[in-house]
């Protein structure tokens, strides 16, 4: 069976809830995480997947541990879908290893029974949701019928409607209902929000957050859109040209950077603020109003600025995109090239 056929036939049929905080990068620049107190849900080491001369993944190392939500960001062709398919056991690594709870995933029936993979283009074995639910119920001992009924109320689809007559967004909702109702320990989603309207996107976020909290599910979601994951993920990693460049906990990132608007009675220069102890990454002035982005905590910024008796000090929220721009600038990457 070709890997393309395997992808279509196995694309939706995998399941799993469990754990994570995680990390990873290329082998030469791996972020260091505290030693885990529990077994890694996903453990990739020097992972490579080549399709002929194309190196879809080239030396990725990553550990994901604990019940949480991990966002995998990258442009088209960065290797996100390939990583998910390796984690789901759809693809076999060219080199290195991909482990689920210490065991290889590929051709591992026990591991796959705990993993669900919702592909970018879901594949259905039967023509309507009712038949698919019956099929999943027969496959997965963890199937939760009351949860399935609840999800059908949240994502109102008619069970008898032909799946191939549904819109892309409705097909994605059907795939998500089936995957979540199977109560996986690990849920893998490729562009999960694509085709969903804003209300359904928020519904999905709430459903996944509850499953992580109540059932200990681990969620790994791949997306091109930073904004979709901004208020949703605990950790975020950036894939580019087959390598994982950047992985960090979002709260930790946001605490290490601060953006503020400040007004002083007398003009204050960027160098003057730097001399006072601020590590300024961006400085702009419009008349008496200054906006800065600084690699400091909010408390550090306030203690420095208040000494200068400002007329205004307003700390502003940071977007995930801003965080990535300034973290990656330290590595000499241009974010527009990575996320375009």
Structural account:
Helices cover about 35% and strands about 25% of the residues. With about 350 residues, it is of the alpha/beta class. The chain folds into two domains: about 5-250, 3-Layer(aba) Sandwich (Rossmann fold); about 260-315, Alpha-Beta Plaits, CATH 3.30.70. The strands form three sheets. It has a six-stranded mixed beta sheet with strand order 7-8-9-4-10-11, with helices on both faces. A five-stranded antiparallel beta sheet has the order 1-3-2-5-6, covered by helices on one side. The protein has a four-stranded antiparallel beta sheet with strand order 13-14-12-15. Helix 5 (about 145-155) runs antiparallel to helix 6. It starts with a helix and ends with a helix.
Portion of residues within helices: 25-40%
From the alpha carbons, calculate the radius of gyration and give it in angstroms.
Answer: 22 Å
Secondary-structure content class: alpha/beta
- Given this structure, which CATH class of the largest domain is correct? Alpha Beta
Shape label: elongated
Short account of what is shown:
This protein is an alpha/beta fold and about 350 residues long. It has helices spanning about 5-10, 80-90, 110, 130-140, 145-155, 170-180, 200-215, 225-230, 250-255, 270-275, 300-305, 320-330, 335-340, and strands spanning about 20-25, 40-50, 55-65, 70-75, 95-100, 105, 115-120, 185-190, 220-225, 235-240, 245-250, 260-265, 280-285, 290-295, 310-315. It has two domains: about 5-250, 3-Layer(aba) Sandwich (Rossmann fold), CATH 3.40.50.300; about 260-315, Alpha-Beta Plaits (2-Layer Sandwich).
């Amino acid at each position: 069976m070709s890997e393309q056929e395997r992808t279509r036939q196995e694309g939706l049929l995998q399941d799993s809830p469990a754990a994570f905080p995680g990390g990873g990068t290329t082998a030469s620049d791996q972020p260091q995480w505290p030693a885990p107190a529990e077994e890694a849900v996903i453990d990739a080491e020097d992972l490579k997947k080549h399709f002929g001369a194309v190196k879809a993944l080239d030396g990725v190392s990553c550990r994901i541990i604990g019940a949480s939500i991990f966002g995998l960001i990258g442009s088209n062709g960065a290797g996100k879908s390939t990583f998910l398919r390796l984690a789901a056991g759809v693809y076999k690594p060219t080199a290195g290893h991909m482990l689920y709870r210490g065991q290889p995933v590929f051709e591992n029936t026990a591991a796959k029974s705990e993993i669900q993979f919702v592909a970018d283009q879901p594949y259905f074995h039967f023509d309507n949701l009712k038949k698919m639910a019956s099929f999943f119920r027969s496959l997965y001992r963890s199937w939760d019928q009351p949860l399935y009924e609840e999800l059908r109320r949240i994502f109102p689809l008619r069970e008898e409607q032909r799946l191939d007559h549904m819109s892309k967004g409705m097909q994605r909702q059907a795939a998500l209902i089936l995957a979540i109702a199977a109560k996986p320990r690990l849920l893998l989603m490729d562009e999960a929000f694509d085709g969903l309207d804003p209300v359904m996107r928020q519904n999905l976020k709430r459903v996944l957050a509850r499953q992580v909290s109540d059932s200990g599910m681990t969620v790994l979601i791949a997306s091109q859109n930073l904004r979709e994951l901004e208020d949703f993920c605990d950790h975020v990693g950036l894939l580019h040209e087959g390598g994982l460049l950047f992985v960090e906990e979002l709260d930790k990132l946001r605490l290490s950077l601060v953006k503020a608007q400040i007004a002083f009675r007398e003009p204050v220069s960027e160098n003057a603020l730097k001399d006072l102890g601020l590590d300024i990454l961006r400085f702009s002035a419009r008349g008496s109003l200054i906006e800065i982005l600084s690699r400091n905590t909010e408390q550090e910024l306030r203690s420095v600025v208040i000494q200068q008796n400002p007329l205004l000090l307003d700390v502003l929220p940071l977007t995930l995109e801003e965080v990535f721009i300034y973290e990656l600038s330290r590595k000499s990457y241009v974010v527009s090239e990575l996320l375009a």
